[in-house]
Design a protein that fits this description.
The chain has one domain: Four Helix Bundle (Hemerythrin (Met), subunit A) (Up-down Bundle). Helix content is 52%, strand content 0%. The protein contains 5 helices and no strands. It is an all-alpha fold. The longest helix has 27 residues. Helix 1 runs parallel beside helix 5, helix 3 runs parallel beside helix 4 and helix 3 packs antiparallel against helix 5. This is DinB family protein.
Length: 175
Amino acid sequence: MVTDGTVPPAEPPDRLTDPRELLDGYLDYYRDALLRKLDGLTDEQLRTAPLPSGWTPLELFKHLTHVEIRWLQWGFQGEPVERPWGDRGPDGAWHVDGDETFADLRAAFLSTCERSREIVAAADLGGFARPGPRFDDPERPASLIWILFHLLQEYARHLGHLDAARELIDGGVGE
């Protein structure tokens, strides 16, 4: 959702045939869409759950940051990550502490996305995840291209949730 009158970025070109450019382009398109859909919400709106499931837009935002970390840093790279599933509340749901601000979470998201781009740029799409805590069976690691498609479906699904939440919050409809 663009609230400043600018035109949102377009999807990658429909004549694009390079799988890497297509995956990279769509991931960045969805990352930007996430930021646009949160743009203009007040702190109270970001922290209020508009849907019966109980998650807030800020919790969804933080969750998607951890999705990137879990699948690319912890999963594909096999790097140690302290809390790959993110912060969970006592009920196991996504959790954002009261002192965490949108600006802080936005900075963490942008930093995480930059790290994800570096990982993807340095790897072969047909490469497989390193053995580690995410894929500890060396006979069954996930391929990078599978992980990237999985990330795309995570973004698409959750941005749909956020579209519904945003419409309930302030009537805004997303692109």
